[in-house]
Amino acid sequence: MNPIIPAAAVVAVAATLGATWFVTRGGSDSDAFAQCRSSQIAGGADTIGGPFELLNAKGETVTDKDVITKPSLVYFGYTFCPDVCPLDVSRNAETIDVLDERGYDVTPVFISVDPARDTPEVVGDFAANLHERMIGLTGSDEQVRAASKAYKTYFKRHEDDGDYYLVDHSTFTYLVLPEQGFVEFFRRDETPEQVADKVGCFVDNI
């Protein structure tokens, strides 16, 4: 990709490239959450997500079982992102507040795809500044790539930009349930209210 393309455009392109497995159409009759879905995953929802091992804000090793203890909105991004990530993660934080008002307890999770700069402290501060309940996670290159691969996200660092490099990455937010795992994704143009409506449907039908 051409590094002179504006960051938002680059990320949008990356998101498109990284999402070829998402098909926008309704769920099947055998899907327990069919009435909640606005999209279907090619190959099935169970092909997305799975175990991961990362570091939390305290530098402690945590697994998906430690993190996904409640319905969770999971986003892969990085704290040095100049435009897209702050908007997306702020939308997710607003969604959590809307869900709180409606009586739903949902956890926002931010996973960094830039472990070289996003130390546990950095990612923890970033998450805490966006929402008091947001969990910030990072890890080694290997740990982050494994988590990204599990969720079929895309990211690629611009190697020629020195210390101020950008990272192309997917921009989907994932709804993950403790027992069911990944069940739905949300595009960045959906409002907090729209995401909250869909999350509520899934939680009501567990």
From TrEMBL:
PANTHER family linked: ELECTRON TRANSPORT PROTIN SCO1/SENC FAMILY MEMBER (PTHR12151), LINALOOL DEHYDRATASE_ISOMERASE DOMAIN-CONTAINING PROTEIN (PTHR12151:SF25)
Disulfide-bonded cysteines: C81-C85
Designated name of the protein: BsSco
UniProt signal peptide: none
Keyword terms of this UniProt record: Copper, Disulfide bond, Metal-binding
Similarity field: Belongs to the SCO1/2 family.
Pfam families xref list: SCO1-SenC
Highest taxon of the lineage: Bacteria
Residue numbers binding Cu cation: C81, C85, H169
A molecular-function term among this protein's GO annotations: metal ion binding
Provenance organism: Phaeobacter italicus
